[in-house]
Amino acid sequence: MQHKNFSTKIFLDSGNPKETEQILSELGFLDGQTTNPTLIAKNPEVQKRLVDGLKFSADEVLRFYREVVETISGMMPAGSVSIEVYADKNTTARAMIEQGKKMFSWIPNAHIKLPITHAGLEAAEEMVKEGVRVNMTLCFSQSQAAAVHAATQGAQKGQVFVSPFIGRLDDIGENGMSLIENILRLYSSGDDHVEVLTASVRSREHFLRSLQIGSDISTAPYAILSEWSKEGAPMPKNDFKYDPPNFTAISYQTLDLDQPWQSFDLYHPLTDKGLERFAADWNALIM
Ligand code: E4P
């Protein structure tokens, strides 16, 4: 199948290069791939090692992560591959910059994932100026997205992604997809340097809705892309209606993108929880 030139770029959300290979053969294209510590921990080779009672040293686990993204990058040299820094609530901007720059040198097409926290944004502000591409992750609010826009002013289009996690908002009874709509609307008054990457996609409906509303990028797990590819990779039909259960809608906030990033409310409990989970999944691999 040829790339159909959707306005939305299609990414695979996976830490397993075998899935990349499979989707590339089923779909015929991919615009990129997102990884995170939890997805790397789920890689079958890692799981096998753990079942055999073997863990990794801190260096080994990073080497493994590097091999995974090198393999993926080789399969899609023109795509983007997101690599996430290790960060817990105590990780400083300096430590994220150090790790992030190393990771950025692993492959030619990396985006470095940094959390939307004070330290993560400080790191992003500096890294973007040095030409590093970043993917700002664990986004759960419009004001976090506004802070990303403000902290990365001056970046080239394509250099910065923001990743709102819709499935995790759904999990707490809020309509995650409405956050994507709100951020797209907010950014329509900006200069277009940040691309909205719909993440934490859990269903075919999430995925189709992200295409329908014109998210810049949508990342979906193997099963969803494989099913979509078997259907011929269709755009949602005109009568496609995204109909989530009885979720609370997330209302639109008017925000001024020209304010300094430090002035926006960066707190969201799911960002803290997400950081804890990524760190715990990563630490569980290390002896
Ligand atoms: C991708 O960049 C995200 O890390 C991923 O989509 C998170 O998905 P989850 O909420 O299902 O863990």
Descriptors for this entry?
about 290 residues, alpha/beta, TIM Barrel, 8-stranded parallel β-barrel, about 45% helix, about 15% strand, binds erythose-4-phosphate
List the helices and strands and how they pair.
Layout (H helix, E strand, L loop, with lengths): L8 E5 L3 H11 L4 E3 L2 H5 L2 H8 L6 H18 L4 E5 L8 H12 L5 E6 L2 H12 L4 E6 L2 H10 L8 E5 L1 H6 L4 H12 L6 E5 L5 H9 L4 E4 L1 H9 L38 H15 L4
Parallel strand pairs: 1-2, 1-8, 2-3, 3-4, 4-5, 5-6, 6-7, 7-8
Bound molecules: erythose-4-phosphate.
Erythose-4-phosphate binds next to helix 8.
Question: Your description of this structure?
Answer:
With 287 residues, the chain is an alpha/beta fold. The chain has one domain (9-283): Aldolase class I (TIM Barrel), CATH 3.20.20. It is built from 12 helices and 8 strands. It has helices at 17-27, 37-41, 44-51, 58-75, 93-104, 118-129, 142-151, 166-171, 176-187, 204-212, 222-230, 269-283, and strands spanning 9-13, 32-34, 80-84, 110-115, 134-139, 160-164, 194-198, 217-220. It has an 8-stranded parallel barrel with strand order 1-2-3-4-5-6-7-8, surrounded by 9 helices. Strand 1 (9-13), helix 1 (17-27) and strand 2 form a beta-alpha-beta unit. The longest helix is centred in the N-terminal third of the chain and has 18 residues, at 58-75. The model has no long low-confidence stretch (mean pLDDT 96). Erythose-4-phosphate binds next to helix 8.
Task: Give a quick rundown of the structure.
The protein is of the alpha/beta class and about 290 residues long. It has a single domain, classed as Aldolase class I (TIM Barrel). Helix content is about 45%, strand content about 15%.
